[in-house]
Amino acid sequence: MAVLVTGGAGYIGSHTCLELIAQGYNVVAVDNFCNSQPESITRVKELAGKSFPFYEIDVRDESALDEIFKNHDTDCIIHFAGLKAVGESVKVPLMYYNNNLLSTIALCSAMKKYNVKRLIFSSSATVYNGANEMPLTEKSLTGGCTNPYGWTKFMCEQILRDTAQSEQDWSIILLRYFNPIGAHISGMIGEDPSDTPNNLMPYISQTAIGRLKCLSVYGGDYPTNDGTGVRDYIHVDDLAKGHVSAIKYSTAHTGTEVFNLGSGVGTSVLGLITAFETASGVKIPYEIAGRRPGDIAVCYASAEKAAEILNWRAEKSIAEACADTWRWQSLNPYGFKNKL
Ligand code: NAD
Ligand code: WQD
């Protein structure tokens, strides 16, 4: 039996493929490389010390999915494939709704056809309403998303809930990630944004390596300890382990269950910059700029439900995540490519 990983060449997918193999699972991965590189899969195979089937397909392509389900005895799916850039989703919303919703629908249709009813879905803290008190629990209010990307996750969650409701043998786990950072300790795989990064950590690391000149800190007047935004950063290896815990849980449970995957601890922008400077020994040039539209001051998870039910907790520190990111960035200044 195998775990089918969609978006397996991406940042979180690649680390999860590696963790699955390390824990003895058979992996089949698919990706269309719209936001990743084939080299990522090559390196996962190298790190794992074994090969696994990989298919370059678009998850929206039902006939391509047919072939995969026919060729591989699959008992569980992790669905990472999706577009994730918040700003881009505002500019090209239809592309986001098309990709993220139709891939999820095509996947579930194929699953139903081949009687594979266990799915772990990559959701996001972005589905929570901005007016909630912190920490966010799985019962906090959702919706009122500030961008189309967030709505695609909100809508996919609903599609999946309805699917699980329709037949008793579905087991669907919605994992709401907070802010994934870090890289595999080898420095061989990591986050490789195709354009100028939107997220803080890759912006910091590309500034440290000299690809970017100066980091803009979006807002220095928030009601936080140092005036900058606070987020819940979680090491991508911890996140990968969270998926394996979710798979184990799903073998014995049906219906839909939601879990936050976060550390439960908030770190400010300046706090992350300082941690990165300490880990790398590189000074990060930054300037305080205006607030970024749509941002909230503070966002962090209650990580209690995952601890109690999945027996999973984030273990790696911000310092380790910074050291691992720096190793990845300095060994691979241009990510998986040799140059820009
Ligand atoms: P990523 O872009 O690195 O990985 C996504 C992968 O999916 C990419 O390799 C891309 O090529 C592939 N893909 C996209 N659409 C596809 C399609 N139609 N068919 C086949 N492959 C397709 O992103 P990531 O950071 O690894 O995120 C993985 C998932 O987790 C995404 O669904 C994302 O929305 C979600 N998520 C990410 C974050 C984050 O901050 N990184 C936070 C919360 C949720
Ligand atoms: C973190 C903090 C910024 C960049 C986003 C998505 C969310 C999820 C994770 C997918 C904030 C500040 C950032 C910069 C900065 N992704 N910042 N300068 O906004 O918490 O969440 O990624 O699901 O949906 O919205 O993460 O890394 O963009 O920002 O000062 O150049 O860093 O204002 O306080 P965010 P981020």
Strand content: 15-25%
Distance between the termini: 40 Å
Helices and strands, in order, run as: EHEHEHEHHEHEEHEEEHEEHEHH
| Main pleated sheet | 7 strands, parallel
Strand order of the largest sheet: 3-2-1-4-5-6-11
Q: How does the overall form come out from the CA principal axes? A: globular
How many β-strand stretches?
13
Q: Which small-molecule species are bound to the chains here?
A: nicotinamide-adenine-dinucleotide, UDP-4-deoxy-4-formamido-beta-L-arabinopyranose
Helix/strand-derived class? Answer: alpha/beta
What's the gyration radius in Å? 19 Å
Q: How large is the count of helical segments?
A: 11
Uncertain spans, ≥5 residues at pLDDT below 50? none
Look at the structure and give the mean pLDDT: 98
The percentage helix is: 40-55%
Notes on the structure:
The strands form four sheets. A seven-stranded parallel β-sheet has the order 3-2-1-4-5-6-11, with helices on both faces. The protein has a two-stranded parallel ribbon with strand order 7-10. α5 packs parallel to α6, α7 runs parallel beside α9 and α7 (200-208) crosses α11. The chain has helices spanning 11-22, 38-48, 62-71, 86-91, 93-113, 148-166, 200-208, 236-251, 269-280, 304-310, 318-331, and strands at 2-6, 26-31, 54-56, 74-79, 118-124, 171-177, 179-181, 215-218, 230-231, 233-235, 255-261, 267-268, 286-289. It is globular and about 55 Å long. Helix content is 40%, strand content 17%. The protein is of the alpha/beta class. The longest helix is centred in the first third of the chain and has 21 residues, at 93-113. The protein is built from eleven helices and 13 strands. The N and C termini lie far apart (40 Å). Bound molecules: nicotinamide-adenine-dinucleotide (NAD) and UDP-4-deoxy-4-formamido-beta-L-arabinopyranose. Nicotinamide-adenine-dinucleotide binds at residues 7, 9-13, 31-36, 58-60, 80-84, 99, 103, 122, 124, 177, 180.
